[in-house]
Design goal:
alpha+beta
């Protein structure tokens, strides 16, 4: 019997260490810590954690109660902070139905808002998102169809008057 040399290597750690898929959304909810209650915006959500945005200060490692749709109070802990954004983990995973309920409560175009580039303000100072190309084409085709229909009606009326 012949012996073989082997090298056992630790598996490379993937760049994305998240255990579960995160869903992008924008949902305003309330959180309570031992010292305060604050409003936060959930930016993404998974069964094991979430990213929130808030003006309130939360220390790294601080635990708070988050109010989620269809579930109510859920404890979470701050594990990462970057300015106003806080990466948090749930103390125990939430059911998939909670993710679905949160997505249903969020505005329907939350993913598009999160992924769309920031648009410059208009003359009144309001920020407006550029319309997608499909919406622009639909508007142009509708205007063209309306113009053709109007010309047809005018031509038909002209023929009726000239026949008399």
């Amino acid at each position: 019997m012949r012996s073989l040399l082997a090298h056992i290597a630790n598996p490379a750690e993937p760049a994305n260490r998240r255990r579960t898929e995160r869903r992008t959304l924008r949902l305003d909810v309330a959180v309570r810590s031992s010292t305060r209650e604050s409003a936060v915006i959930i930016r993404n959500l998974s069964r094991t954690g979430l990213l929130i945005e808030t003006d309130a200060y939360f220390a790294l490692g601080e635990t708070f109660i988050l109010i989620l749709p269809e579930l109510g109070a859920v404890p979470a802990r701050v594990v990462r902070e970057e300015g106003k954004s806080l990466g948090c983990e749930f103390l125990s995973p939430v059911p998939a139905s909670v993710i679905s309920a949160a997505l249903l409560k969020a505005p329907h175009d939350a993913e598009a808002d999160a992924l769309a580039p920031a648009a410059p303000p208009d003359d009144a100072g309001h920020f407006v998102r550029a319309r997608p190309l499909g919406a622009f084409l639909f508007t142009v085709l509708t205007a063209l169809f309306s113009a053709v229909a109007l010309l047809f009606i005018v031509a038909l009326a002209t023929l009726n008057f000239s026949a008399e």
